[in-house]
Every structure is written in structure tokens, then in C-alpha cells.
């Protein structure tokens, strides 16, 4: 053991599904040793990170508009009046959604 090039052992646990995925990916390569494959992936593999902040903001705005529409619809169905201020707020929210959508699409290019 003292003469080993790699003298630090690392262990980790996986689920059955994770093990199956590792096996599937490993079968696409010529190696059959887990240690060699996992070491290569840990050192040379890459992680794809997707920033979803814009999408979360978009979803938040959609939820806000949905709540406003539901409140207005409930009031109108109960025989209450439709206020111009409500309609203006919905239009403002829609404008925000369109701006966010344009921003998201332009940042994807």
C-alpha cells in the first residue's frame, strides 16, 4: 500500500437508479473499472449549470397575474363591479411578463 500511486481511498453511496445510470454511461466507454471511470469523470468531467433566476422571476409574475385574475373573476361572479384599476394592474403585469420573456429569450442567444 505504501508504494501505491493513489493512496487515498474515497467512498460514496448511490441509489439503484444512480448505479444503473452510471453503468449505462460507463458502457459507452472502453473502460470496465469503476475506479478508473469515476476518477476520470470526477477530474475531467463537466457540470452543466443552468441559471434559472429569470425563469423563477417569470413564474412569480405569472402567479401574481393569476391571483389577480382569480380575485377579479370571483368578485365579478359574485355580482361585484369590474374596476378600471384592476384592468390597469393586469395590463401592467402583462407588460412585465413580456419584458421578462424578451430578456430571457435574448440572454439565451
DSSP, total strands: 0
Q: From N to C, what is the helix and strand string?
A: HHHH
Task: Estimate nothing, just give the exact number of structural domains.
Answer: 2
Mean pLDDT: 84
What percent of the residues sit in helical stretches (DSSP H or I)? 55-70%
* Gross morphology: elongated
User: Span from first to last CA?
Assistant: 52 Å
Main sheet characteristics: none
Tell me the structural class: mainly alpha
Tell me what portion of residues adopts beta-strand conformation: under 5%
Count helical runs. 4
Radius of gyration: 27 Å
| Low-pLDDT segments, ≥5 res | none
InterPro entries: NikA-like (IPR053842)
Protein name: Bacterial mobilisation protein (MobC)
Task: Describe it.
- This protein has 109 residues and is mainly α.
- The chain folds into two domains: 39 residues, no CATH class; 57 residues.
- The protein is 65% helix and 0% strand.
- The mean pLDDT is 84.
- InterPro entries: NikA-like.
- It comes from Blautia luti.
- This is Bacterial mobilisation protein (MobC).
Summarize this, please?
The protein has 109 residues and is mainly α. The chain has helices at residues 16-26, 34-44, 53-77, 84-107.
Name the features.
Bacterial mobilisation protein (MobC); mainly alpha; 109 residues; 4 helices; 2 domains; NikA-like
How does the SSE layout of this entry go?
Elements: H1 16-26, H2 34-44, H3 53-77, H4 84-107
Helix pairs in contact: 3-4
Protein name: Bacterial mobilisation protein (MobC)
InterPro entries: NikA-like
